[in-house]
Amino acid sequence: MMSSRLRVAVVQFAPKLGQVQANIAKARELCNGLKPRSVDLLCFPEMFFSGYVFPDTATITPYLEHPHTGPTATFCAELARSLECFVTAGYPEKLEPHEHAPPLGGNSLSFHQPRIGANSAVMYDPTGERVGAYRKTNLYKLDLPWAIPGSGFTTMTLPHPLGPTTLAICNDLNVQDPAVWESLEEGPYELAQHCIRSGTRLLILLNAWLHPDEDGEVSDSDSADCTTSEHNEGTDDMEPSWEVIKYWAMRLNPLWATIQEATHENEKKPGIPNELLVLVCNRFGNEGGSRFAGSSVLMSLRRGSGRPRLLQMMGQREEGVGFWTANIPGR
User: Fold this and answer.
1) Measured between alpha carbons, how far is residue 46 from residues 13, 81, 92, 232 in Å?
2) For 182-219, how does the pLDDT look when each residue is reduced to its tens digit (9 = 90+)?
3) Contact 117, 93 (CB under 8 A)
4) Could you give the CA distance from residue 331 to residue 328 in angstroms, rounded to a whole number?
5) Please, are residues 49 and 93 in contact by the beta-carbon 8 Å criterion?
6) Do you know which Pfam families this protein is assigned to (predicted)?
7) How crowded is the C-beta side of 9, counted as CA atoms within 13 Å?
8) Burial of residue 82 (number of CB atoms within 10 Å: 0-12, 13-18, 19+)
9) CA–CA–CA angle 60, 291, 281 (5° rounding)
């Protein structure tokens, strides 16, 4: 199968909650070393400029952004034009009034306010034109008081060298209600199966993923035996969180499971790529008592190989731009 080189960059640091302009200035500073046409794709994490931990609609309302003219859209469009590359970032989207949803209700006061936003992502092309948008489908508990879910996963057909690209956000990796986890073999694996059906060659995940010490949802991570040059659990903050990376890989199990483990829906089919790249762009830092895991990573997943392959990664609290090059599989 023919392949081509893809140059990607992920921006990882600890944004300050509610300090939008300061966070944008920091991101701009970190990107100063990038030269025009030196990278094909530049990624920023989930809700990167606003911060993530907002307990209710009232507290996030001042930070909701217009999808075309807000701070994230303006910054990404300008940076895409300047660097002549694709740029994607997550942001809290301000919905039109007709899209507002009623409160979820329940025991918590935070669920008694209308939901007027969406946890969204946007992508701009090298000319600064908006070419893609996505709303998080599988909302995390911190999204529920203020955000409505998206309508489902989508895949964009982007120019060479990107090709069929799926853009997703953080908790989209996990099982979607009302489904429940069955087993390692059966899943369900909604995002992975979408990538198979859509012929995705590049999966981008924009995350604000919590450190496993903060969140009880990271589990069964030992099932993903990742191939890398150095694989020992480290306590140094400049080391990645292997538990988190293994969990991300485990949630994409159908994309690398052995044939014996694969279900009938996961079997190789003509015309569907057997390999794809997964780019996870995460943040670190602390907000509202929550600690984020960093550990941004680039993985290559080949169907039937029996294990994911880690290509590049960042530490749990490593600040900077990860600039990585990899082969992206051809059609």
Assistant:
1) 12, 21, 9, 28
2) 888 889 999 999 999 999 999 999 999 999 986 544 43
3) yes
4) 10
5) no
6) CN_hydrolase
7) 25
8) middle
9) 80
